[in-house]
């Protein structure tokens, strides 16, 4: 009101000048918000005092990624799951113990299964009972042998929301017992998350889902942002979703303009979308690319073009 009263005593030209300045300030603030939303960091806080790397390396189906080489190149986030097989779990544990890096500086994510709503490629029979989850947690901890888990996830929703909650409440106990620093879920949609949030003590820190250029669930991503749940992409290059991201003409053109690879553009897009990610690689050059995503930035137009796919 005071500002309005002061303007009443000004000449029209002065009023117009102030109006233009105010308009420019609003536009600048809108741009700044857009920029902040797309700024990416090398690590994010997923729970109070728990920092998680934005770039994580994973392996599946008994073919572990080169975890040791990844850590020697500066990587610190490792991702695995009980159902990836004993060999992968053991490999992750060995890599951590032999790295010469302090355990506190390495971030280990793993997952325990729930009963899938449909036949899955894991081809398993599991029970949703709490005791089965407890046994899975104990086996996971034993195979890894790294003392504690930084992030424990429910691998997918159960057949019912009640079963998903029962499983989640068991891994929630890990935080209270000191065997996990944070807990979360994987492959959950917004309605699945809503039920967990309404009936749990510790909210999910992370939701790990399929997410890439050409295959992105924007509804769940926005829900997670609104509820302070870190969104993590799996298959960020589209390899498991049938999307040929690396050969997309727009991706390749943008890569050429920045002097980077198509994979780096695809991964950078995921980060600027507000998601961290887990990927898999064996070759040193690919691992180095995965860790070299913070020296360039996609423009708004480039980002929007890829988001439209």
Automatic annotation (TrEMBL):
Similarity annotation: Belongs to the aldo/keto reductase family.
> What is the official name of this protein in its record?
NADP-dependent oxidoreductase domain-containing protein
Q: Where is this site: Lowers pKa of active site Tyr?
A: 111
The highest taxon in the source lineage is: Eukaryota
Listed binding positions for substrate are 155
Molecular function terms in GO for this entry?
A: oxidoreductase activity, acting on the CH-OH group of donors, NAD or NADP as acceptor
* Residue ranges occupied by any NADP-dependent oxidoreductase domain in the UniProt entry: 70-307
Q: Which organism is it from?
A: Amorphochlora amoebiformis
Which residues are annotated as active site?
Answer: 84 (proton donor)
Question: The organism's lineage?
Answer: Eukaryota, Sar, Rhizaria, Cercozoa, Chlorarachniophyceae
Q: PROSITE patterns from the xrefs?
A: ALDOKETO_REDUCTASE_2
Q: Does the keyword NADP apply?
A: yes
Quick check: keyword NADP in the entry?
yes
Looking up PANTHER family in the UniProt record yields: 2,5-DIKETO-D-GLUCONIC ACID REDUCTASE, NADP-DEPENDENT OXIDOREDUCTASE DOMAIN-CONTAINING PROTEIN
The entry's keywords: NADP, Oxidoreductase
Q: Which InterPro entries match?
A: AKR (IPR020471), Aldo/ket_reductase_CS (IPR018170), NAD(P)_OxRdtase_dom_sf (IPR036812), NADP_OxRdtase_dom (IPR023210)
- Hey, what's the signal peptide range on this chain? none
